[in-house]
Specification:
Number of helices: 13
Largest sheet: 7 strands, parallel
Shape: globular
Number of strands: 9
Low-confidence stretches: none
Mean pLDDT: 97
Bound molecules: NADP nicotinamide-adenine-dinucleotide phosphate
Distance between the termini: 45 Å
Length: 287
């Protein structure tokens, strides 16, 4: 019996492994998988089974999935490559007879027009067609998407975007990771589609105000037309297709695309989700 976590070499997957350990799952029953396994050597030292796996090399998947009682398929990170990668993972999970596959998707994946979600939509459809028992975790944005840019926001005194007054139901990666760990260690989730997001959404104007209040440095939100924001992202050297994809995320935010009101995340983790104020405080602690 083992719980396999893909993307365990990345940010979210690692926290899921930590959450499973914190919930008392024996380290020997956890398989932490990814390509750059040197990043999680510390987990191996703690008794977690660390295994190499590459979605682009199908032959690496079967041996890792064999004997798994549950698989957390953390969506891969190369936008544009993820449909074949996830297809390989789903095929291997099916061949291994994995009894439950949990997948990290995007808000309203099957109905949203947000470009970034289209690979998630395709993956959910492949999972459904596979007949594998599944749980879908439709994660909204991470706070870390924004907190990682705080140095830039503070330096320039401005947050640039094209999200208008759209509310963003961000939560901490740790919140989503705990939700995944809860689903992997408790019963009754099979077949569920959870729309996960922070309890209270915020606008980028509110983010700027919170950052200003907590640092004393004036930061304001400047809303740009979507096309202009896309050009600006390209001007910053972001490689195609990411300027188009990220500008489209802001367009979708402006239309409510990342606003989640289900309360699923708080219910799964059994506590309020990380607030905007807490996330900003955690990030500017050292500023
Ligand atoms: N909700 C959000 O705000 C948000 C934001 C960004 C991303 N995401 C999605 O959520 C996922 C997890 O987020 P994160 O912050 O943990 O991202 P991350 O730190 O970039 O981690 C991505 C993980 O995917 C693994 N991976 C990528 N391509 C792979 C391949 N071909 N074969 C095997 N493993 C592969 C990486 O493995 P190696 O590093 O070992 O290569 C890494 O462990 C992302 O991959 C992305 O799909 C969501």
């Amino acid at each position: 019996v083992s719980v396999v976590i893909t993307g365990a070499t990345g940010h979210l997957g690692r926290i899921v492994v930590e959450s499973l350990l914190a919930r008392g799952l024996p380290a020997g029953e956890i398989v932490a998988a990814g390509r750059k396994t040197d990043r999680i050597a510390d987990l191996a030292e703690r008794g977690v089974q660390v295994r190499h796996l590459d979605f682009d090399r199908p032959e690496t998947l079967g041996p890792v999935f064999a004997g798994a009682s549950k698989l957390l398929l953390v969506s891969a990170s190369d936008v544009g490559q993820r449909i074949p990668e996830h297809r390989n993972a789903i095929d291997a999970a099916r061949a291994a007879g994995v009894p439950l596959v949990v997948y990290t998707s995007a808000p309203k994946a099957t109905t949203t027009d947000m470009k970034l979600a289209q690979e998630h939509k395709a993956t959910e459809e492949m999972l459904q067609a596979s007949d594998l028992p599944t749980v879908i975790l439709r994660n909204s944005w991470y706070f870390e998407v924004y907190t990682g840019q705080f140095p830039t926001y503070l330096e320039n005194g401005v947050i640039l975007g094209a999200a208008g007054d759209g509310r963003i139901s961000a939560a901490a990666r740790a919140d989503y990771a705990e939700a995944a760990a809860a689903v992997l260690t408790t019963e009754g989730h099979q077949g569920k589609v959870y729309e996960l997001g922070g309890d209270t959404g915020f606008t980028l104007t509110e983010l700027a105000a919170e950052l200003t209040a907590q640092t004393g440095t004036k930061v304001e939100y400047r809303d740009l037309p979507v096309a202009e924001f896309e050009q600006m992202l390209a001007g910053f050297g972001l490689a195609a297709p990411m300027p188009e994809i990220f500008a489209d995320v802001d367009r979708a935010i402006g239309e409510g695309g990342l606003y989640v009101t289900t309360g699923d995340l708080g219910r799964l983790i059994g506590r309020p989700t990380t607030t905007l104020a807490q996330a900003v405080r955690a990030a500017v602690g050292g500023v």
